[in-house]
Design goal:
By secondary structure, the chain is mainly alpha-helical. The protein has helices spanning 4-31, 38-80, 85-123, 128-163, 171-174, 176-211, 224-235, 237-259, 269-290, 301-327, 332-356, 361-370, 374-387, 390-407, 415-427, 430-452, 457-502, 515-556, 559-562, 569-583, 585-602, 604-640, 650-694. It contains 23 helices and no strands. Helix 6 (176-211) runs antiparallel to helix 7 (224-235) and helix 18 runs antiparallel to helix 20 (569-583).
């Protein structure tokens, strides 16, 4: 295709507009649904106000950080590196755009989910199928907004730089700032939102369920609104920003590999734009796949969701083939590499479902272990989490090897490009994956509203079933996000090596025999543990304040338990908001300071080692945390449904403790490792040339 430089980006822009159109259409259909009673609307409004207030304060902090970093790009970069002034100014512009679009993706998800919850609760009065349909549509609003904004942002910048006469092979490096902007917002959203959601959850449950003996989502609990707010700020805004930046990082990283001078034959604009076109095709596949989410006769919600995932992947594979071979006339091996990514996606989703769903042996083993007490429940949960890492890692390794071999088959010698295409294939179904993730907090909130507004028991049964599935979908999408982050970061590592070597006459070897590489590798591996510790401790600190506040209100207002006095919900929300936003600063700053400090102090070899250490350690740690936490959560729900004595039994008490430990693992520390990895890798690519030339030590 001779005019690929114009048609390719515009096709991506049109696909992005199509995605936003789908998102808008779904949002309108959701917002037109019945909102139920005045009491239901009152509760929903309180959740929406608390969620938006948290987001407003968080984004104000993020805006300050973003402006300061953008000024550093605009003025500091050209001052230190005058020859690359265009790169630094382009990075500053892209950084602000990436941060803004990532924040917008989170806002859209939050706005719709906090209004969909009450509508799903009301739809549950008509049965499981209407409630499922509405919850999925609400989640899809966020999913298609993420993909649409990502495609429009990247393709728009590509068209802008091309219109200014920039060589197509030079454009991808100018887009790295865009990826970093998305990563920074995602990091704040994941850490801040994760601290909020689990501090509110742990604090509310420990006092309410354990000490006061009242059920979950009881309106007498002063922390119950903060708990429901947390579901939205953690899993809607957080996951939206997270997968937006993962989507952008993967596309940009693969475009960088395609533009690399070290990949024969000479880079072409077709190769550079190929990842964008794959993303554009997958948008249509995701939209069609969404139509296949219908409750089957068996009544299995997961069967409906899994069926839609398989349909989407199959349609995406057909689209990939059409774009690769007949349209662009690229090697069939490139189609094979992108197909590898789709296969990895399916394996990761089904594997995570196996280890975290109440229908399978791992979760049931944890529930069985709870009958012997808290210790055995904790041990079994740890074992399940550790074991769950194996299959995803082996799958990713096989995928990397196969994609590399396909990319280097025949005369291509594009092995790294093949790995990049596998990552793009994996991220191509982001729209549907985000929809499944947002489905979780929407149904969780719907259950809370049903409980707090005293809806009939049969309605609560419907929302409980949706909520249990939502826990599993959140776990599976976290597994998907973690796996895709690992694959995308490996591509970015290759980009870092390429740009560091391009800045010096003698290429860096990045040998494991180098003390610098080994030092960086060990520091990177340890950094993931330190980051996780900071996130976990932050949840503990914030939860402690919630516990004290809930206890205070119960003590000073005895009428709360009798139903004659109302709790002060807003005060709990303010406490968690303030503490979560204060606690998120240090972990987020660590992601920026670590690569800069190691790079300029110990050199490019050490920074390369740091990246590998962070990627490898972060991948397995995040998988362990997310899966162990999800398994503990569903083991508790399995017992609550009547197994091993049901609610109030000794097994249930042990399972509640396991769930309490698992909460910050699966919803705070584990998911936050994703943007931590990608923030470090994108910064490394940005500063690769400077580190190679100006580090204090190179040994």
């Amino acid at each position: 295709m001779n005019n690929i430089g114009v048609v390719g980006p515009w096709a991506s822009v049109l696909a992005g507009l199509f995605a936003l159109g789908v998102s808008f259409f779904l949002a309108r259909s959701v917002l037109r649904a019945d909102t139920g009673t005045d009491r239901m609307r009152e509760i929903s409004d309180a959740i929406a106000v608390g969620s938006m207030e948290f987001l407003r304060v968080e984004y104000r902090i993020v805006a300050i950080f973003s402006v300061l970093l953008a000024l550093l790009f605009f003025f500091g970069g050209p001052l230190v590196d005058p020859e690359s002034s265009q790169f630094w100014r382009a990075s500053g512009t892209g950084f602000l755009a990436g941060a803004a679009l990532s924040a917008l993706a989170g806002f859209i998800g939050m706005f719709v989910s906090t209004r969909a919850n009450v509508r799903v609760a009301q739809a549950a009065t008509k049965g499981l199928a209407p409630a499922l349909d509405l919850a999925v549509r609400a989640g899809a609003v966020n999913g298609f907004a993420v993909v649409g904004l990502g495609l429009i942002g990247l393709a728009g910048f590509y068209l802008a730089w091309r219109s200014m006469g920039v060589d197509p092979a030079e454009i991808p490096i100018l887009l790295v700032g865009f990826a970093f902007g998305g990563s920074l917002v995602s990091l704040f959203a994941r850490v801040g939102g994760g601290i909020f959601t689990k501090a509110a959850d742990v604090g509310t449950d420990l006092v309410g369920k354990v000490e006061a003996g009242i059920p979950e989502d009881d309106p007498r609990n002063p922390g119950v609104i903060a708990d429901n707010v947390g579901d939205n700020v953690g899993d809607c805004a957080g996951m939206g920003a997270d997968l937006f930046e993962t989507y952008a990082v993967t596309l940009i990283g693969t475009m960088l590999v395609a533009a690399s001078e070290s990949l024969p034959p000479e880079p072409t604009e077709t190769n550079v734009l190929f990842p964008l076109l794959l993303g554009a095709v997958a948008v249509v596949a995701s939209a069609v796949g969404l139509l296949f989410i219908r409750l089957p006769k068996s009544g299995s919600i997961m069967a409906a969701l899994h069926g839609a995932t398989l349909v989407t992947c199959a349609l995406a594979a057909i689209g990939f083939y059409v774009v690769t071979v007949p349209l662009l006339q690229l090697p069939l091996a490139y189609f094979g590499a992108s197909l590898v990514g789709l296969i990895i996606t399916v394996v990761l989703i089904f594997t995570t479902d196996y280890y975290t769903s109440k229908h399978f042996r791992p979760v049931q083993r944890i529930a069985g272990g709870s009958t012997s007490g808290t210790a055995t429940a904790m041990i079994e949960g740890m074992a399940v989490g550790l074991e769950s890492v194996a299959i995803p890692v082996v799958t990713i390794v096989i995928g990397i090897v196969v994609a590399f071999l396909l990319g280097s088959s025949g005369d291509l010698q594009h092995g790294l490009f093949g790995v990049g295409l596998a990552a793009v294939g994996m991220l191509s179904v982001t729209g549907l994956v985000v929809a499944l993730d947002t489905f979780g907090p929407v149904t969780d909130n719907a259950g809370g509203i049903a409980q707090m507004s005293d809806m009939p028991a049969e309605v609560r049964l419907v929302t409980d079933e949706l909520d249990a599935v939502g826990n599993t979908t959140k776990a599976t999408t976290k597994g998907y996000a973690i796996g895709s982050a690992g694959l995308a970061s490996l591509v970015l590592f290759a980009d870092y090596v390429d740009h560091a070597n391009a800045a010096v006459d003698t290429p860096f070897a990045f040998s494991l025999q180098s003390p610098a590489v080994l030092s960086g590798l060990l520091i990177g591996a340890a950094a993931v543990f330190v980051f996780g510790a900071l996130a976990m401790r932050a949840v503990g600190h914030a939860a402690g304040e919630v516990i004290e506040e809930v206890r205070r209100q119960f003590r000073e207002k005895p009428g709360i338990m009798l139903g004659t006095d109302k709790p002060d919900y807003a005060h709990c929300v303010r406490i968690v908001t303030k503490r979560a936003l204060r606690e998120m600063i240090v972990p987020a700053a660590m992601a920026v300071a670590l690569p800069v400090g190691i790079g300029f102090l110990l050199g490019a070899d050490a920074l390369g080692g740091l990246l590998i250490g962070v990627i490898v350690s972060g991948l397995v740690m995040a998988l362990f945390m997310a899966n162990a936490g999800g398994a503990w959560d569903n083991a508790k729900k399995y017992i609550e449904e009547g197994a091993h004595g049901g609610k109030g039994s000794e097994a249930h008490k042990a399972a509640v403790v396991g769930d309490t430990l698992g909460d910050p693992l699966k919803d705070t520390a584990g998911p936050a490792i994703n943007p931590f990895i990608k923030a470090i890798t994108t910064i490394a690519v940005l500063i690769a040339g400077l580190v190679a030339q100006h580090s204090l030590m190179n040994f």
